[in-house]
Amino acid sequence: MSASSSRAERVVVVGFGPVAARLVEELRPAVRAGDVELLVLGEEAVPAYNRVLVGDLAVGRTDEESLTMADLDDLAADGVQVLLETPAAAIDRRTRQVVLADGRTARYDRLVLATGAQAAIPPLAGFDPGKRLLPHGVTALRDLADAARVGAAVRARRRIVVLGAGALGLETALAAAEEGAQVSLAFTGDVPLERNIDLGGGRVLLRELRRLGIEVVRSATATGVDVDEDGAFRALVLDDGREIPGEMLLLSVGVRARTELARTCALGVGKGVLVDHELRADADGTIFAIGDCAEVWCSRPDCEHCAGREGRGPAGLVGPGWRQASWLARRLTGGAEAMAAEPPDLILLKARSIDLVAAGRVTPEPWDDDGPDSADVAVWADPQHGRYAKMVTRGGVLVGAVCVGMPRTAAELTLLFEQGGELPADRTTLFRLDGADASDSGTPPGPESTVCRCTGATLGAIEESIEAGCSTVTEVGRKTRAGTGCGSCHETIRERLAAWAASAGATTG
Fold first, then answer.
1. How far apart are CA 251 and CA 136, in angstroms?
2. Which residues form the BFD-like [2Fe-2S]-binding domain (predicted)?
3. How far apart are CA 65 and CA 58, in angstroms?
4. Quick one: pLDDT at residue 506?
5. Which residues on adjacent β-strands are paired with residue 68?
6. How many CB atoms lie within 10 A of CB 236?
7. 409-465, pLDDT tens digit by residue?
8. Pairing of strands 215-217, 182-186
């Protein structure tokens, strides 16, 4: 590997996924200035792409070019060295070197682990867990090759069995069904998204899934797969003897942080590579970890960042990783302030046929009585029409919400939740936002309102980019980064583009 200049600090990044791409982008000014010499080691044959939108790629709603997050020629022009298909095998902390799989070494002054996570593979009969070999027709949805396999099944209108009803599994099941595939959704709990929404919201969601033609199999403990004479998947086997037939099995039972490299040099490992609130994985601040491979761990009961919570493993969300990458870039170039606490959890389901938002504390029920500190809970349900809303407040301030089938109410609740706002005394005024006589009585978003929760891009920044000439979602994304994460803000960007085009047409007319 090339030697660094006397004044440049040698930074080596292991991994080239979306979080690493953000770190590289933030470090490019320092590379151009000669303050940082940057080497990126990527395991895949292609540069960084947005894994969050791999499901959209699988069902034909986007293309590979739109997922791409790095231009190798541009990076090389700035002096960033990228080595693709170059996995790291070990770390030698004594000599500060990364040992590559081909035997070469790369010296570092600062090392950043951005190795991400891999799809969790359940121990089902019929799998080879030692070799991680899956039968033909069984896949996860993590990379471009997975997307191609799922895409072929969707286009052929094959029967797809989805195991797992977290956000990714649910979104994929919905997208595949919307595109014409036959879909069965199997999960262990009583309702989908069980970790994110309450029982009432989950039951309404369950009815909507069935209304859309998805076969839902609850309390399904999978024990194995049945294959045909050619070794191809033909059914998921449950512990009660039932079988769910299909031509493809999509595994969506979570992800596991990739910690194998950290283990080669005795770094602390729990669910992920253990780091402190400054993302340091070692005592002297030489090695850092970010994104889904990192587990921020703190045992201080008074910590404002985690309020005494134990460290958490990979979240599978790109937004937190991007915030870590931006902060670490400032830290590595000498300009970081204290790292801000992570915002509360917020789930927005990406689906054309179901609107769902879940935020904050959703478990309290209307009749719970925990004394003077108990939360106030308001619930409204119309299961027959696929509508449900739950609002949890403390001192009038919204601390948790679930909203299904009411997009305008959901938008208002999301805004109030993020701003720590108080709900109106008459909660039913929010429900009227989605009524037949709805008016624009909700809180109008201002220029400072966050539109893209993955990147923090505001409405004002998006409108400025449109005024400057951006005419597509992709162009707005290049200018502001809005829409480059989970994609849930694409519709808002399209609405703003359409409004600007209509305004411009009226002006010229």
1. 13
2. 451-498
3. 14
4. 59
5. 49
6. 26
7. 998 898 889 888 899 888 888 888 887 655 554 556 677 777 776 666 788 888 888
8. parallel
Mean pLDDT of 268-291: 95
355-434 in CATH: which number? Answer: 3.30.390.30
| 9-118+257-332: CATH topology | FAD/NAD(P)-binding domain (3.50.50)
Fold (CATH) for 459-508: Arc Repressor Mutant, subunit A (1.10.10)
Residue with tokens 């969506």, as numbered in its chain: 252
Which amino acid is located at 487 in the chain? G
How far is C-alpha 262 from the chain's CA centre? 23
119: number of Cβ within 10 Å: 17
Pairing of strands 110-113, 9-14: parallel
Task: Name the pTM for this structure.
Answer: 0.85
Map out the domains of the chain as residue ranges.
Answer: 9-118+257-332, 138-253, 355-434, 459-508
Q: Which amino acid is at 382?
A: D
Asked if residue 121 lies in contact with residue 129, where contact means CB atoms within 8 angstroms, the answer is yes
Report d(CA 397, CA 266) in Å as an integer.
45
Query: Which helix (H) or strand (E) covers residue 215, if one does?
Result: strand 215-217
Q: Give the long-range contacts of residues 411-420, CB within 8 A, separation 24 or more.
A: 411/442, 412/442, 412/443, 413/357, 413/359, 413/389, 414/346, 414/348, 414/357, 414/359, 415/443, 415/445, 415/449, 416/443, 417/344, 417/346, 417/359, 417/360, 418/343, 418/346, 418/450
Q: Can 9-118+257-332 and 355-434 be said to share one CATH topology?
A: no
Selection from 500, 492, 503, 491 nearest residue 469 by Cα: 500
**Alpha-carbon dihedral 447, 449, 453, 458, rounded to 10 degrees:** 10
Give 140-156 pLDDT, tens digit per residue: 999 999 999 999 999 99
35 by Cβ neighbours in 10 Å (0-12 / 13-18 / 19+) ranks as: middle
391 phi/psi in degrees, rounded to 5: -130, 125
